[in-house]
Amino acid sequence: MIHYRSGLCLLFCLLSSAVLRAQEPSDVPKPDQEQRKQVRQLAADLGGRRMDAEHRVKVVAKLLAIGPAGEAGLKDYLDKTLRNLGEMVTPPPATPTLDAQIEKLRATLADLRHDAGLTKASIEATGVPALDQLTMLYGQREAACKRHYQRMGRAVTQLDQFNDLLRHWQSKASEDPALQPASLSIQKYLEKAAKLLAQAAPNDEKARRVLQENEKIGQQLPPEVMAGLRALNTLRITCGLQPLLIDLKLCEAARLHSADMESLRFFSHESPVPGKSSPFDRARLAGTTACGENIYMGSSATVDALRGWFLSPGHHKNMLGESPTRQGLGRSGKYWTQMFGS
User: Fold this and answer.
1) How many Å from the N-terminal Cα to the C-terminal Cα in the chain?
2) pTM surpassing 0.90?
3) Counting Cβ atoms within 10 Å, is residue 330 exposed (0-12), middle (13-18) or buried (19+)?
4) How do 245-246 and 326-332 pair as beta strands?
């Protein structure tokens, strides 16, 4: 009995010793109150919207310089950001009936512009009614998806900012090992962000970037010219085509040709001005290239020029061609020139 009790006492002592050892502080120092406060402030700075990637990486460096507490705070920020963005990224509302009708009308318009014998009469008889109906249905689908697109727009903007931080951080870490802690893989976060971005804009990412860039470029153009460039891209997107990037050099070549037609009283793709005979000459003179040109005379209103081109077979094919990637537009009085580049 004595031995039994002694055995129990020994076991209890051993267990108590193990528990006490488990409760002993580790070799890693716990962050003090000031460090915790500093980590919280720096993590909040990382989430600030006014900072560019360069300043965000400086904040990352400050967090990592704190030590394990800063590294843990950085990881928490990265994980929380991805989690929040993941909750924002959702599939668009289903509109199968509208989608089927839209695709049918797009096919009608595609068949029309690919018709070698396209005429103004067939555009008026088939193209205009199809485009009117397509515009209405496409607008209905856009309205149904508007809230989703707005949410996705915010998500994509935040994902772009997050990606900018990660890419800039990765670039700096290649030069400074202190910016690449062993417990964090920048590449893995980039891959996760890329997957979310693909879900947020699986089909329209390229178009979104073109339109976004166009708005920056368009600040250098007259309002009526920018309105025409936007209108053509709206038409192309409605028809299921990619929007065209604005080429300021094509815009300048187009403006000068319109000015030449007005001042010299001619209306032709062939110019009497030396060195500017063809659209290709004029584009080259402006420092770019061209693959097509539309001209219009008779109104200073953008909508009139666009309607005139849509109803004209050759101009129609230029506007809705699959090969162009760039566009330019220029007006002088009632003369308009629209240029395309591949």
Assistant:
1) 98
2) no
3) buried
4) parallel
